User: Which sequence fits this backbone?
């Protein structure tokens, strides 16, 4: 039987006699009590924090009657015949107390209490005071059965959300696009954190209301963070700044609310109203950017937007009920969360499978290209044994191939011809072994200075060439200058003996640009090298005869 009528209230707190019996339960004093439709938030509260409610318990042939209350703001004691029959929370000498969670309450009614008044003593420094949700008298067995049945959907959705979170973590570890699955995992954990503590049966599994409230608060407060990550994943070309702002503001609030509550600076209950306000704004902010360009949405984006809109609407209605803007009604938050989760997970899995197929196709294509390239390189695998660079024959065949490709594709091709300055003198004065070491050092620096796609070869003697497909004249000159500096700065030694430093002169030519015809590229680079030698060596000159030389040259 629902107790939704016959209530009255009285602001303040009762005095107690020497036996600990509240005087207000012994005095009728009808003028002090005021009728109210439901025992919650009477008018003219102002800053009052103590209140008493009373009503008559129904008559009936009860076997094991209990009074069920969905929730109380914040702590409560129940009295029948002046005797305390229930207490949740601790009242101090001033009749005050602290928040200890929002459990549901099952108050055992003593034998013979039918038809008698029951008094509820309440303290609350929260914005609401009194009872919330359902208030009814029922049999204990029926209530337990009702609690279990009422919790089924929440437990199912919560467990399903945890499974989704685990799968999302596994999928995130299996591919490079981890961000989407990390967002799914965070959202699913947040949903589970909201739904499981909110299921009444959780209190039967672990009677620690404040612990469940912390878990629920963390799950609830993480929700906009997870939703912002998800919306950014699917609508990242809209307004990333808005999504990131929502995310970081929510993270900051979590730190302040949960941290402040654990440190005793603020009660957890008082952190909800401000967050609900922020969350309501966040739900709208996350939704609005996605509305731009609706005509260009894919079916996946429409599905995400539709399920998000449904879930956001349910959350807003639930906030309206919680803050008494709307009459009490059970809002199916778990099913809205589940719908959004299922849509997001299905799309994520579809996207994952599509990515895997594309990767498989790409790997097969790359494998074919590698095999073809390997076969091609096997024909051209001519290596200079001293420098480990390719030799002149490799260069000649590669130049012909790259020149044809550049003309066909219209992409630039650059050529560098490098010569060790006064190498004969170095060889004569330091010995051939030192000369070989100098050649090896130049080969090493060339490998370090150029891209893998560039072809660096020892052309003959102390002369080296580098073919740079796709490189412009400016890029080629920059690389040549990097090589020249590296060689000039290199300290060489052999058998404990320090060798003199060597320098390079480099000629650069590029097509199109320096060479009007690609088949004159080598000749143009050779002319530039000659200019570099004539200009004093240790410098880079391109075929346009612009000098890139050491400072002061």
Assistant:
């Amino acid at each position: 039987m629902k107790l939704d009528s016959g209530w009255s209230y009285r602001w303040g707190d009762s005095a107690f006699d020497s036996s600990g019996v509240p005087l207000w339960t012994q005095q009728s004093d009808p003028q002090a009590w005021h009728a109210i439709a439901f025992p919650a938030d009477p008018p003219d509260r102002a800053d009052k924090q103590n209140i008493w409610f009373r009503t008559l318990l129904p008559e009936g042939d009860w076997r094991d009657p209990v009074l069920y209350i969905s929730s109380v703001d914040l702590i409560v004691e129940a009295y029948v015949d002046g005797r305390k029959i229930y207490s949740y929370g601790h009242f101090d000498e001033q009749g005050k107390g602290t928040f200890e969670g929002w459990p549901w309450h099952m108050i055992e009614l003593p034998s013979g209490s039918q038809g008698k008044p029951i008094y509820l003593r309440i303290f609350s420094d929260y914005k609401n005071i009194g009872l919330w949700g359902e208030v009814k008298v029922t049999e204990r067995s029926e209530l337990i059965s009702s609690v279990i049945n009422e919790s089924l959907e929440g437990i199912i959705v919560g467990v399903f959300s945890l499974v989704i979170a685990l799968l999302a973590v596994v999928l995130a570890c299996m591919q490079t696009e981890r961000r989407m699955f990390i967002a799914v995992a965070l959202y699913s954990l947040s949903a589970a954190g909201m739904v499981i503590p909110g299921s009444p049966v959780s209190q039967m599994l672990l009677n620690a209301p404040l612990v469940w409230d912390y878990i629920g608060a963390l799950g609830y407060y993480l929700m906009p963070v997870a939703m912002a990550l998800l919306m950014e994943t699917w609508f990242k070309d809209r307004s990333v700044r808005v999504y990131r702002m929502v995310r970081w503001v929510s993270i900051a609030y979590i730190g302040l609310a949960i941290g402040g509550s654990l440190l005793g600076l603020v009660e957890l209950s008082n952190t909800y109203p401000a967050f609900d306000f922020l969350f309501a704004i966040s739900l709208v902010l996350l939704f609005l950017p996605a509305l731009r360009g609706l005509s260009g949405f894919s079916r996946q984006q429409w599905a995400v937007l539709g399920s998000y809109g449904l879930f956001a609407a349910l959350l807003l209605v639930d906030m309206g009920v919680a803050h008494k803007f709307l009459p009490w009604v059970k809002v199916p938050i778990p099913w809205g969360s589940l719908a959004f989760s299922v849509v997001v997970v299905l799309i994520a899995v579809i996207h994952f499978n599509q990515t895997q197929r594309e990767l498989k196709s790409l790997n097969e294509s790359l494998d074919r290209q590698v095999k073809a390239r390997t076969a091609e390189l096997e024909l051209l695998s001519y290596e200079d044994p001293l420098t480990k660079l390719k030799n002149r024959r490799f260069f000649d065949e590669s130049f012909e191939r790259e020149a044809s490709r550049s003309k066909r594709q219209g992409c630039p091709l650059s050529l560098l011809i490098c010569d060790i300055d006064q190498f004969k003198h170095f060889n004569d004065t330091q010995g051939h072994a030192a000369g070989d070491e100098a050649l090896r050092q130049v080969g090493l620096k060339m490998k370090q200075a150029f891209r893998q796609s560039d072809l660096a070869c020892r052309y003959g003697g102390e002369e080296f060439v580098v073919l740079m497909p796709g490189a412009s004249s400016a890029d080629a000159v920059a690389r040549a200058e990097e090589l020249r500096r590296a060689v000039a700065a290199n300290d060489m030694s052999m058998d404990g003996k320090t060798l003199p430093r060597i320098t390079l002169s480099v000629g650069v030519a590029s097509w199109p640009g320096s060479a009007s015809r690609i088949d004159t590229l080598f000749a143009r680079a050779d002319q530039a090298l000659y200019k570099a030698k004539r200009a004093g060596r240790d410098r880079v000159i391109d075929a346009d005869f612009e000098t890139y030389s050491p400072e002061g040259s």
Observations:
- Confidence is low (pLDDT under 50) at residues 545-553.
- The longest helix spans residues 333-380.
